[in-house]
Amino acid sequence: MAAPERIATWISTVLNPFFLAPVLFIMLARQYSVSLYESSFIISVAVLFYTLLPLFILFGFKRRKLIISYDVPVRSNRNKPFVLGLCSYAAGLAIFLMIPFESAWIYAVISAVMLLNGILSALINLHWKISIHSNGIASFSAGLLLLVWFGYLFPFPGYPVIAVLILFLLTAAVVWARIVLGAHTTAQAVAGAVLGAVVTTGLMWFFLMSSTVMVIG
Question: How far apart are CA 89 and CA 17, in angstroms?
């Protein structure tokens, strides 16, 4: 394997969407939870429903030889894992909508963003193989940037500018990696990133700007 492919593989693995999924929950829980129980609960739900269960689903499909790799390169083989993964995402959203914690709304918003991105990606996948890796990093980047911009994370001068630069480079790196590995065409990789950024920005901007949910407590 040549150096570009090795680098691309490393980037795709480290910035896998399932590994990124609980990061925002962890960051917010550490900052806003009022007790160890609350933060542990939030993090446990996020890791279980957005990382472990989706990975377990893929493991099951791989073990039964229904997919040839965890990237699920064959578009038609993605439909069933998509449906089961979305069920896991929906369960996580339902839990965050029901918990009594004062800061629960922000976790529900992030969950809704992830679920909507997943639904749209699954629908597009019925006809075209859009990149989930690109979608995941762009959604994560847009979500983190908005949380920083609105002062929910790292409310210090200069951070929005730094965040923009770093997150743009990370997103570009994943798009490049998916193309180099031959997992997606340029159009598929870029489309995944655009979808993730637009959906996340639109939904989170609406809720973060809303006067009814501007205070976490």
Answer: 13
